[in-house]
Design goal:
7-stranded mixed β-sheet, 2 domains, Aspartate Aminotransferase, domain 1, globular, about 400 residues, Aspartate Aminotransferase, domain 2, binds pyridoxal-5'-phosphate, 17 strands, alpha/beta, 4-stranded mixed β-sheet, about 40% helix
Length: about 400
């Protein structure tokens, strides 16, 4: 059997039509398929590989840690310097109230932990989230996901969860003394890039302060430079009570985290003790990879604070075609909107044929996703945009 056939037979499937792109090597901004063909990677593992593939400094850090030790003990009991150093590095770049980092294995698990912490700390259970939001696929995270389509098959989910339109005044009105937390992305990525006005975020912070509702920002996708700042909340100018991290947090290794004030986090330590448990969270190899990756991203911003914005502007300049309805862009996440899903799917397939790897968005199936490594060069951006325009032309030509 071919590897493709074995993949379809033995690797649990979640789609009737997986991309089934066989990756044999990844380097810089490129993926290589089974025939050795080079493809420009425009999605970086869906906002994970912010430094591209095969970064030498990250590989060296991983190799050293592999020689020192791998997993030694469940989370939270032993002192492991990779964990301590990475938690300290994260606390150093966040506001003073975000100083206690709980490492998990994934973004979903960070969402779970944060919701538990909010319920535990406030003693309340009401949770508010938003339509077209995505916070992960486990049952708690699914309960706050903003889509009946993805939720329906798994009901009953968590009770006492209420959902509103993003950036709506109804959501602000719904926050009251019974609300444990409100969870949202500072920009809704999976909606094909949906932003909220800064003034709304300020009103949100005020309402949370007035009622004691905890504000949770999910920066799993926007974090680590993707937004154009290290974190999107810096652009917004509002500090959350809890921040969720994931994806690029691990420098290519699986990792998530939720971050809060130590006084809040400490409530996991009593009545009951071990308020949130993970065996592998904060794995030492993931911590060293993440820490090195963060250091490099910080160096990139220090060298040129505008580098993400400059690359975003270049994409926007190059992406011109009558067939494109609009391009939404937030830092280095861009969504090219076409008239419908069929057109988008054909263009994505054609891009892959032409040596460019991309995908669509959960709640915007008509939009092509661009979330390349932040290290993508200006020439690579021009090359990628030329392939997209060529692919659109070919699809249009075929259907005319
Ligand atoms: C905004 C956001 N939150 C949470 C998650 C869940 O992260 P994970 O897939 O690591 O569980 C994702 C993943 O796509 C995400 O984009």
């Amino acid at each position: 059997m071919t590897t493709r056939e074995l993949f379809l037979k033995h690797v649990g499937q979640t789609s009737m039509a997986p991309l089934a792109f066989e990756v044999t090597k990844a380097q810089g901004c490129y993926l290589y398929d089974a025939n050795g063909k080079k493809h420009i990677d425009l999605i970086g593992g869906i906002s994970v590989c912010n430094l591209g593939h095969g970064n030498e400094r990250i590989k060296t850090a991983i190799k050293k840690q592999v020689d020192d030790y791998l997993h030694v003990m469940v989370y939270g009991e032993t002192i492991q310097s990779p964990q301590v150093q990475y938690a300290t590095a994260i606390a150093d770049i966040l506001p003073a109230t975000l100083n206690s980092i709980y490492f998990t294995n994934s973004g979903s698990e960070a969402t779970e932990g944060a919701m538990k912490l909010a319920k535990r700390y406030t003693g309340k259970s009401k949770i508010i989230s938003f339509k077209n939001s995505y916070h992960g696929s486990t049952q708690g995270a699914l309960s706050v996901m903003g889509s009946e389509y993805w939720q329906q098959a798994y009901r009953p989910l968590l009770p006492n969860v209420y959902q509103y339109d993003y950036a709506s005044s109804e959501a602000l009105d719904a926050i009251d003394e019974h609300t444990a937390c409100i969870i949202l992305e500072p920009m809704q990525s999976e909606a094909g890039i949906n932003e909220a006005p800064q003034a709304w975020f300020q009103q949100l912070r005020k309402k949370c302060d007035e009622t004691g509702c905890l504000l949770i920002f999910d920066e799993i996708q926007t974090g680590f430079g993707r937004s154009g700042s290290l974190f999107a909340f810096e652009k917004i100018g509002v500090v959350p009570d809890i921040i969720l991290l994931g994806k690029a947090l691990g420098g290519g290794m699986p990792m998530g985290a939720f971050v809060a004030d130590k006084e809040m986090m400490d409530c996991f330590s009593y009545k009951p003790v071990l308020g949130h448990i993970t065996t592998f969270g904060g794995h030492p190899v993931c911590c060293v990879a993440g820490r090195e990756s963060l250091a490099i991203i910080q160096e990139m911003f220090k060298a040129n604070p505008q580098f993400v914005e400059e690359k975003r502007a270049l994409f926007l300049q190059e992406l011109n075609h009558d067939c494109i309805e609009k391009v939404n862009a937030y830092g280095l996440i861009l969504a090219i909107h076409f008239k419908d899903y069929d057109t988008n799917k054909k263009i994505i397939d054609q891009c892959i044929k032409n040596g460019l790897f991309t995908d669509w968005f959960l709640f915007a199936a008509n939009a092509l996703r661009i979330a390349p490594p932040l290290t993508i060069t200006h020439n690579e951006i021009k090359e990628a945009c030329a392939i997209i325009i060529q692919s659109i032309n070919e699809v249009m030509h075929e259907s005319s």
